[in-house]
Each structure stands twice: as C-alpha cells, then as structure tokens.
Amino acid sequence: MSTSVAPAISRFNRPGQFLRDLYRRSKVLAIIGWIHLALLAGMLVVFPFDSRIVMGINVWIKPMKFAMSIAIYVWTVAWLLEYLRLPGWAKGIISWGISISMLTEIACIATQADRGTTSHYNVSTPFDAVMFSIMGIMIALNSVLALVLLICFFTGKYNVPSPYLWGIRSGLVIFLAASGIGGMMIAHGSHSVGVRDGGPGLPIVNWSTKGGDLRAPHFLGLHALQVLPILAFPISRHRSWTTNQKTAYVLTPSGAYAILIALLYFQAIHGLPPLRM
After folding, report:
1. DSSP H helical segments within the chain, as ranges?
2. What is the DSSP letter of 239?
3. Residue pair 178/221 in contact by the 8 Å Cβ criterion
4. From CA 242, how far away is CA 239, in angstroms rounded?
5. Confidence of residue 1 (pLDDT cuts 50, 70, 90)
6. Backbone CA torsion sign across 253, 258, 260, 261
C-alpha cells in the first residue's frame, strides 16, 4: 500500500486529526465546509419558529439538506485533491472554483427560502429567474471542475493503491452521471414525472410517493463520491488478497451501485415512485 494512504486510512478513527488534515489538504474547501455547517446550525435554530410551507414541507428543510450535502461534498474534494500530483495553482483553481460555486448555490437557496418561495425551476419573476440562472451557472462550473478531477484521476500522477483509485474513479463517474440527471431536471422544469412537484413525499427527502421523482437517482448518484471511495478503503488494506482481487471487489459493488442509479432513473422517467421498485 502507498505510504501516503496508510496513515490517512487510520485517521478516519481520529476525527480531530482528520479535520486538521482537511485544512492541510485544502484550507479554502475546509473553511467552506464549516461555513455550510454553520448555516445549517443557524437554520436549525430558525426552523421551529417558522411555520411557512413550500412544496409541501417547511421552507427551511431544503436549504438544510443542501447545506449538509455541500459540506460533505467540499470536504470530500479536499481529501481527494491530496492524492493528485498537481501543481499548487491547479489545485487552487479547483478548490476556489468549487468553493465559489457551492457558496453561491447555498446563498441562492437560502435567500429564496427566506423569501418563502422555491429556488429551483422558479422563473415566476425577473428576480427569481436571475437567481435560478445563477444557480445553473454555478452548478455547470462545479460539474466542469468535477470532470477535470475525473480526467486527472484517470490520466494524471497519483499516489494511491490501484483498488482505492478505482473507488475514486467510480465515485466520480457516477457523480457526474447524477449531475447530468440534475441537468435533465432543469431542462424538464421540475423533478417530478407524472405528477406535480410538491405532492406527497417520503419523510425528510420528500421524494414523491405518487409519481416519478428524479431526485432519488440524482441524490444517491451524487453521494457515490463518498460511498465508493470509503468502501474501497478497507478493501485496499486487505493483506491476503491480490491487487487484481481487490480491484474486482471494488468494481463489483461500484457496478451494482451504477445499476441501482440506472434503475431509479428509468423508474422515475416512467412515472413510478422510488418505493415501487
């Protein structure tokens, strides 16, 4: 195993060291993650005192979910950047680009929540249309930078074991596919198929229980970026397996994960709710 990865694996058992490593790997992404967690804490304080409902749920639930998800995402990118042998300026461009796009995204979502209206697909007024357009631009920027990361992990120099590297690659591929589903939702003008947005939904995630919902494959696909590399960590440490065996044990669940996303996607576009699969 790579000498740089073995200590990193053990740090998952030491949260304090893990957080210090995040600052060392990318200070800006580490700080952006904390900003989103601070926003989440603030919204949790406001949440019980605001009874406004948007799309069938409390107005602050959506920005809270996005704040948590973005914090996890930027910290994941910070962790992965360390493994790429890129010049500092290149890592800086990726870090700052993702930071700006994600901070702008949560600012737009929180602003619209504070106004008591929707953020995505909302073009009902010039202001709403501008906000939605800004969000679209930021997500496009983030997707381009994620694609750059994927290209680097396939073609660049890196210092990680092959099985773990395939976990990262698989996570990025599925992440980008899920980003494409997000683009389809924007083109469609809603996340629901066969029903209107805002109907009955599952607890917390609010995925439709009456029709297709593209948010299910979108959400699960985005978090392949965390699930698959984390799964590859212990596999890459196993001493009694060969490198080829370890790689196969990483690619098999990665393929299964991709099939799950594909099934959820095709289920959604045919107007079937996630729980009916």
Report:
1. 5-10, 15-25, 27-46, 61-81, 88-114, 126-155, 162-188, 215-222, 224-237, 243-269
2. S
3. yes
4. 8
5. very low
6. positive
Neighbours of 37 (CB within 10 A): 16
Cα separation values, 120 from 103, 195, 224, Å? 16, 17, 23
Residue type, 39: L
- Dump pLDDT digits (tens) for 36-93: 999 999 999 999 999 999 888 899 999 999 999 999 999 999 999 989 888 889 999 9
Alpha-carbon distance of 141 to 199, in angstroms, equals 31
* Neighbouring residues of 145: CB distance < 8 A, sequence distance ≥ 6: 94, 97, 98, 101
Among residues 159, 166, 168, the alpha carbon closest in space to that of 246 is found at 166
Q: Are 71 and 64 in contact (CB under 8 A)?
A: no
- How far apart, in whole angstroms, are the C-alpha atoms of residue 84 and residue 96? 16
Would you put residue 52 in left (φ > 0), alpha (ψ -120 to 50) or beta? beta
**pTM beyond 0.85:** yes
Which residues 6+ apart lie within 8 Å of 164 measured at CB? 5, 229, 232, 233, 235, 236, 250
CA 231: distance to chain centroid? Answer: 16
Residue pair 181/221 in contact by the 8 Å Cβ criterion: yes
Count of residues in the chain: 277
Mind giving me the DSSP string for 96-125?
Answer: HHHHHHHHHHHHHHHHHHHTTS--TT--SS
In order of 75, 94, 128, 143, 232, the CA distances from 179 in angstroms are 18, 17, 22, 7, 22
- d(CA 246, CA 180) in angstroms, rounded, equals 30
